[in-house]
Amino acid sequence: MAFDLAEEEWKRLRAEALGHVEEARQLEKLAVGATGAVYAWLATHGTEMSNFGILPWFIPVLFAALGSLRSWALGKQISTISEYLHKLENELRKDKSGGFGWEGYFSNKRGHVYWSSVVFWSVLLSITLLVPWLVQCLS
């Protein structure tokens, strides 16, 4: 009985963590799309916004900054779930051998996903901070 409850909890938390991973990847796509849309609109309607100077060109900085904060929060939640699942897997292995252990195996291999996210958000933030400066220089 306890094994069945623990296994159900493992499945539920694993699904939640995978949902967070999917949300983080979707967030990256949306941030790039929104940034591109704003820049495209400003490039074609820039004269209408001349009263504001280069200020509208900083709007995408918000997408990058807020997106990176949300991504960080999702990463922290995924890590918390992962740590708990790793402990749960160890307990389940004591009761019944086989079938579990992915979190334990994967725990030392998370660096690639983490660093790809850090690089993505850093590059996007850098670009969104650089573009207004370039627009001002080229105007």
Describe the overall structure.
- The chain has four helices and no strands.
- The protein has one domain.
- The N and C termini lie far apart (71 Å).
- With 139 residues, the chain is an all-alpha fold.
- The radius of gyration is 21 Å and the shape is elongated.
Jot down its keywords:
mainly alpha; 139 residues
Cα end-to-end separation:
71 Å
User: Averaged pLDDT, please?
Assistant: 85
Strand content: under 5%
Task: Indicate the low-confidence ranges by residue numbers.
Answer: none
* Count of all domains: 1
Q: Quick one: overall form?
A: elongated
Helix content: over 70%
- Elements, N to C (H/E): HHHH
Radius of gyration: 21 Å
Secondary-structure-based class equals: mainly alpha
- Number of DSSP helices? 4
What summary fits the major beta sheet? Answer: none
Number of strands: 0
Q: Can you give me a brief rundown of this structure?
A:
82% of the residues lie in helices and 0% in strands. By secondary structure, it is an all-alpha fold. The N and C termini lie far apart (71 Å).
Describe the protein's topology:
Blueprint: H1 2-45, H2 59-95, H3 102-106, H4 111-138
Helix pairs in contact: 1-2, 2-4
